[in-house]
Amino acid sequence: KDFDPENDLVFAKEARELFPDNEEISAMYSLIQNGVSNVIEANKYSDTALDFYEKKDFNNALKYFKRAEILLPNEQAYKENIATTFLQLKDYDSALRYYDIVIDSLNPKTGKPEYLKGYLYLLSNKRDSACLWFLKSFKLKNQIGTQLHEQYCQN
Hints:
By secondary structure, the protein is mostly helical. It is about 80% helix and about 0% strand.
C-alpha cells in the first residue's frame, strides 16, 4: 500500500490513544504528523537545549527547547522541559502556563506534569495547592507524585 499521510495519521492517532505508553507508536505518530525532517531538527534542538540545561545555562536551554517546540508543537516533553526551565529561572507564571498546556491540552495521564505543577506550588509556598497536584499525580499512579504526596501532605 502507498503511503497515505492523512489516513495513516488517523490510524496512528487511534493507536496512540489505545497505547499511550508505547514510545514506538508515539514516535511513529510524530513522524507522520510532523515529517521526518522536522523530527530530526527538533531532536537536535532538544539535545542542544539539554546540554545548556546541564550546564545551568537556562536562558539558552529555553531558547532551544522553544525552537524544538515550534517544529513539534504537540510534543509533550518539549513543553515540560520549557516549563521546568522556566521553573529554574523562577518565572513561575510562565512555568505554570506550560504545565497547564500539557495537562489540559495534551492530557498525557502520566502524573508527571501534575507533580511538577505541585512542586512549583511548593516552591511558591502554596502547600495546599501543591498537595492537591501531588494527589492528582498519586491518583495517576506516578511514583514521584506519590512520594511527594507522602512527604509533604500526610500529617
